[in-house]
Structures are given as C-alpha cells and as structure tokens.
C-alpha cells in the first residue's frame, strides 16, 4: 500500500541507553537556541504597529495608515521598506546557514551555536540603539546571521544527542523554545507599547540580548555530540562521552555504528556535490520540500503580522497586540502536545491531522473575512461575535501547525540525513526555510492588498498539496536510530528505487551489524 510510512520500530537494532539527566539538561540548554529565532519572529510584527516606531523610521507608512482609516483596510500597511525591515533577517540567515555548514562539520555543533549567539548579541545591541533605518536593517542582518548559525546546528545537535526512542520529544525542545521566544516577544510588545515617551520599541528590539546571552553561555557549557567528536578524530573521548550520555557501559554497538558512519562520511570530499547523487534523492527532496511546505502553511502571516492582521480586521491597536499574545499561548501549549505524542503516534499522524485542521480553519477564516470585508476592504460594523470567531479559528489553525509542521519541519530533516551529508543537507533545509520565510514576509502585505481574503485560500491550497505529499512520500521515522535511517527508504514503495544501486563506501561492505540488518549509513 503506497501510503504505508515505511517500517515500524523494533524492526532493527535497539541500542541500550537511558534518558539520563546529563542528556536531558544538555538538550534543554541547546534547545534554547530556538529562543533567538522565536524572539525575532514575535517581535517585529508588534514593533511595526507601534506608532512612535513608525513615526521615527517609516513616516510614510504611518501617514498612509492614518489616512486609510476609513478606506481600504486590506492595503493600509502595504510598504516595501517596512516588510524589508522584517524580512532582511531571513536573507541574512540564509547566507549564514550555508557558511555554518562547514563550521558545524569541521569545528563541531557547539561552535556554530556560539557564533550564532554572539552575532545575535551584536544585532540586538545595534537595533536597541538604532537612530536610522540603516541601523535597523544592519542590526536585523546580524540577528539573521545568528539565526542561520543556530538553526543549522541546534536541531542536528539535539537529534545526535538524544537516545533514538526520545529523539522526537527532545528535538521538539527546539520548536518549544521558538514558540516561547515568540510568546515572550508578544507579551513584551504588549507592555512596552504602553511606555510613555514612545521608546518602548527600543526595549523590544534590545531585549533580544537576553536570549542571545542564554545561547552564548549555554554553548560554552555544552558537551559536543559523540557523532561530531568522532567526525573530528576524537574517537576515544567520544566513546567515553557516549557512555556518559547514555548512562550505560554497553555502548559498543551504537559506538561501532557511529564510527562506521564517520568512516563512510570521510570518504566524501564534497558533501554538497555528493547531495546530487541518485541515492540521496529522497534526502534532497525532503531537505527542499519540507521547509518549503512548512512556510507555505502561511503560519508566518499570523506570526509576523498577527497584530497587523487583527488591526486590519478592525481591532484597536491594544486589542491587536493582545490577540497576538493569545495566539502565542496557543502556539506554546500545542507544541507540548506534539512533544508528548511525536514518539508515540509518529510523525505522519501528526502531519496529516495538523493538515486537515489547518485546512478547515483557513477556509473558515477566508469566509469570515470575505463576508465582512468583501473585496472593497470596507467593513460596515464589526460585531463582537465576529471578532471572536475569527480569533478562535486562527487559534485552532495555530494549534494545528504547532503540533505538526512547526516542530516536524525541523525534526524530520535533522533525523533523516546520513552523517556524510548531514551538515550540508541541514543547511539546505535552513536556507529553503529562510527563502520561503522571506518570501512570505516580503509579499504578504502586497498579497493581502491584492488577493484580499483569497490569501487564506491560497495557503489552504498548499496545505492540501503538502498533506498529499506526506501521505504518499514521507516514511515514518519514529523509533529508528539515526544512523540506521537508511532502512526506511529501502522499504518505501517509491524511494526504494533510488536505493537499489546503493553503493557501499567502505570496500563495498558496511555490514557491521550482528543481526545482518544491512547497511547502516550510506
Ligand atoms: C517556523 C517558523 C514559525 C514558527 C511558529 C517554526 O517552526 O520555522 O517560521 O514562525 O515555527 O511557531
């Protein structure tokens, strides 16, 4: 049956090991790397609705917004410079994630996290003290470089550290801290916007220093992953580290597999060019399509522009910021659901359920906005029940994303790549995510102005496409050890054809496993 998601757990080896306090604490600290990304996502939408901020840096937008009060609501925020402020960060992150590939591979995952923290710190300072638009944009670019490094290294770090049975839950710690970062930013915007004297936006932007310090200090304290230590020749230290992480002495089987994966990866001189080989077709496809689809759910329309969106549909400035806080809380809570369920129910179930939920909500929100605003963008009166229905469905939509494409968009790519292409493929994942985040951020306000309520249907269409894709093409990866992942492709109805010509890098033989499970890493 085509939709079968590959093979089930228990179909291969089971490495001994526990969820030790050591691994738990390391993963919690590393997951903090998501805070810097989340803080950014949450902060810019709120800041761009603060009147003193607009008056100082984007006066024309502010004048237009004032003038538009009684005319077309869909177009009141349409400004390229303003969206450039939001989206410049994602272009910078894209470039940084490519550079981070080499740092992460050659110097270790931790060093990429450290770079990420430091760059982010510098960006936050420049933004907090900004006097001109160029300082804002330059600061956002530094923040973006920071995000690029962090997002490239943190998910890999988590997936490598975690015992395979808990990999999903520990990895989603990253997404959880993204959502906490967004929520904290929303709450701060709400309060800072009230500061008399109109300089609250400086606190909002400068506040990014706090998550930056957390990940900077955190990265100095964290241990490196055994996979990365072996990759860099520290083999014996890696064995000792693996024993400590897993809390058992019997790590031989996992250790042998890690060394074999590393040996195979050393034969690969050009990880980028390598990615184009036929046997990596499924990995490359996922590295491109998963982040692309994640962004085409339209989630960032809500995350970046929730206050703008809510004020567009007739909420006052204060109510708009408050509604953003509500969606932020839903986002965090629903992420906890996926931490609970991902290693029980599996990735595919969450992807598909989340897809259906988002689809229904997008259709309802489009219908609500269409009914009231029509195509002219001039609503008559907006009754209270109407606002409640819209916010409710937006919240259910956010929940659907937050237990499916949100966390899984980072988890699945980080667990499916074999070591020899892991760092490069993860960079592709991050860059594609950033390109599409950039595109959505940059064109959303224009699209809202032109497509009006149809914008929500546009994203709904993509949700249908991505759910079909998951149904047929994404194998289940729950409970499969990371260096064993090849099995899922080999037994997949479609991807197995790319595995037929599997060539084994070490003397044609990587059959190191006792039970003859087959190649572990190619
Ligand atoms: C996505 C972000 C999004 C966030 C929302 C992340 O997984 O990559 O683009 O804003 O989830 O929680």
UniProtKB/TrEMBL annotation:
Domain Major facilitator superfamily (MFS) profile: 26-478
Main location, first listed in the record: membrane
Family according to the record: Belongs to the major facilitator superfamily. Sugar transporter (TC 2.A.1.1) family.
Organism: Hibiscus sabdariffa (roselle)
UniProt xrefs under PROSITE patterns: MFS, SUGAR_TRANSPORT_1, SUGAR_TRANSPORT_2
Matches recorded under InterPro entries: MFS_dom (IPR020846), MFS_STP/MST-like_plant (IPR044778), MFS_sugar_transport-like (IPR005828), MFS_trans_sf (IPR036259), STP/PLT_plant (IPR045262), Sugar/inositol_transpt (IPR003663), Sugar_transporter_CS (IPR005829)
Membrane disposition: Multi-pass membrane protein
Keywords: Membrane, Sugar transport, Symport, Transmembrane, Transmembrane helix, Transport
Ranges annotated as spanning the membrane: 19-39, 87-104, 111-130, 136-158, 170-193, 199-222, 284-308, 320-342, 349-373, 385-406, 427-447, 453-474
UniProt-annotated location(s): Membrane
NCBIfam families from the UniProt entry: SP
Pfam families the UniProt entry points to: Sugar_tr
Protein name: Major facilitator superfamily (MFS) profile domain-containing protein
Claim: Disulfide bond is one of the keywords in the record: no
């Amino acid at each position: 049956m085509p939709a079968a998601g590959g093979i089930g757990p228990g179909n291969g080896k089971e490495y001994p090991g526990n969820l030790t306090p050591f691994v738990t604490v390391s993963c919690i600290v590393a997951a903090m790397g998501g805070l810097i990304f989340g803080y950014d996502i949450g902060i810019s939408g709120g800041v761009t609705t603060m009147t003193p901020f607009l008056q100082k840096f984007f006066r024309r937008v502010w004048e237009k917004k004032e003038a538009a009060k009684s005319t077309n609501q869909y177009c009141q925020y349409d400004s390229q410079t303003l969206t450039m402020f939001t989206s410049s960060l994602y272009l910078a992150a894209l470039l940084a994630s490519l550079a981070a590939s080499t740092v992460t591979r050659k110097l270790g995952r931790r060093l990429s996290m450290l770079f990420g923290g430091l760059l982010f710190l510098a960006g936050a300072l420049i933004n907090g003290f900004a006097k001109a638009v160029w300082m804002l944009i330059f600061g956002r670019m530094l923040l973006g470089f920071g995000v690029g490094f962090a997002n490239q290294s943190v998910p890999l770090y988590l997936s490598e550290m975690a015992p395979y049975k808990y990999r999903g839950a520990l990895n989603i710690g990253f997404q959880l801290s993204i959502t906490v970062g967004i929520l904290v930013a929303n709450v701060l915007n709400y309060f800072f916007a009230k500061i008399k004297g109109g300089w609250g936006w400086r606190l909002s932007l400068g506040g990014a220093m706090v998550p930056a310090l957390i990940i900077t200090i955190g990265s100095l304290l964290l241990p490196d992953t055994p996979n990365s230590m072996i990759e860099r020749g520290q083999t014996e230290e890696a064995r000792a580290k693996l024993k400590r992480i897993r809390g058992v002495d019997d790590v031989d089987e996992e250790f042998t597999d890690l060394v074999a994966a590393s040996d195979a990866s050393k034969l690969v001189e050009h990880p980028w060019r390598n990615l184009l080989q036929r046997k990596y077709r499924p990995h490359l496809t996922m590295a491109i399509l998963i982040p692309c689809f994640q962004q085409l759910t339209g989630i960032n329309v809500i995350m970046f522009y929730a206050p703008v969106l809510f004020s567009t549909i007739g909420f006052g400035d204060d109510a708009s910021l408050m509604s953003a806080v509500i969606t932020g809380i839903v986002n965090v809570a629903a992420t906890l659901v996926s931490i609970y369920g991902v290693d029980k129910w599996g990735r595919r179930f969450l992807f598909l359920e989340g897809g259906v939920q988002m689809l229904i909500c997008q259709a309802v929100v489009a219908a609500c906005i269409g009914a009231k605003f029509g195509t002219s963008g001039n609503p008559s009166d907006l009754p209270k029940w109407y606002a409640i229905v819209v916010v409710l469905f937006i919240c259910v939509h956010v929940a659907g994303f937050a237990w499916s494409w949100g966390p899984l968009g980072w988890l699945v790519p980080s667990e499916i790549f074999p070591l020899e292409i892991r760092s490069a493929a993860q960079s592709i994942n991050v860059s594609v995510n950033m390109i599409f985040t950039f595109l959505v951020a940059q064109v959303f306000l224009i699209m809202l102005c032109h497509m009006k309520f149809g914008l929500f249907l546009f994203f709904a269409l993509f949700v249908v496409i991505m759910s079909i894709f998951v149904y047929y093409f994404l194998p289940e990866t729950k409970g499969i050890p990371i260096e064993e992942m090849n099995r899922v492709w080999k037994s997949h109805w479609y991807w197995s054809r790319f595995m037929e010509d599997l060539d084994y890098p070490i003397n044609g033989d990587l059959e190191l496993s006792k039970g003859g499970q087959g190649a572990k890493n190619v």
